[in-house]
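re: ur question from yesterday

yeah so i grabbed the chain u mentioned. its 297 aa long if i counted rite. heres the sequnce exactly as i have it in my notes:
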Amino acid sequence: MLNINRCAIDKQLISSIMPIRFKDSSKGDYGKVIIITGSIGMTGSGCLCANAAMRSGAGLVYVGVPAGLSTVYSTKLTEPIIIALQDNGGGSLSAAGSARIIEAVNRMDAAAIGPGLSVNDEIVEVVRNVIKRTRIPLVLDADALNAASRDISMLKECNADAVITPHPGEMARLTGLSIREVQNDRLKVAADFAEQYGVTVVLKGSGTVVALPDGTIYVNTTGNPGMATGGAGDVLTGIIASLAGQGVKLSDAAVAGVYLHGLAGDAAAGKKGMHGMIASDIIEELPYVIKEIAAKP
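ran it thru and got these structure tokens back, copy pasting raw so excuse formatting
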């Protein structure tokens, strides 16, 4: 068992992590991020993720989606670039198109996979191929985690730095524990999984836990119950991928991501209250909280 080093996440730490914007620079200096997403009825997830990545500073954001849904994404998204990927004919990604997905991913600086993918046998194969063949920082969320829970050994095949971002239900599926067992010992569950599989674990919830494979654990100090709303996790995934794409070490991107996500949620709650907040309210506040943190007194 690793020696556990516990740290609270605060403004000073995040300020030291945030990437610098240089006067003589272009969009190419701030990273290319790709989000692999999409299935019928779940297009909002990828859109939230992509817009959060843009609002967190990524220079270019690409959204890889099933070809049959590309028009939907092109209509809903303005700044991100849509990549039409092979469709299985039912509105989700085809395993036969894995080579094209891997080619697109490895041309980027960071990738996220999972929001709104759905789960079927082909998606499990797509996720497995991405995990095995990706060479850039990788964020696994939502249906990518549900796919991995069908064969957890695929995480051992990861050849890139990876972050997983489960909520307690997803963590329960990944570990075989009950949700209650996960919640009763959040730090240990996250730390043990990070050590066993060599990934950074972001266990979402009140006091989000970020557990690194080396035994370091961070506990977040921002956020509120108003963030318990559909799509908030997709926003977090976009923030983490964006920071990684800008050159922030992936584990640091996870730490900074949860803090900024919670801080933006706190700002949104201050304006709209916790009952009526939605995920896009968090995205709207991101530029302002990042401006505050990046000011570096």
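noticed a couple things. The beta strands are 5-8, 32-36, 60-66, 81-85, 110-113, 138-140, 162-164, 200-203, 209-211, 216-219. also The first strand starts at residue 5 and ends at 8.
anyway ttyl
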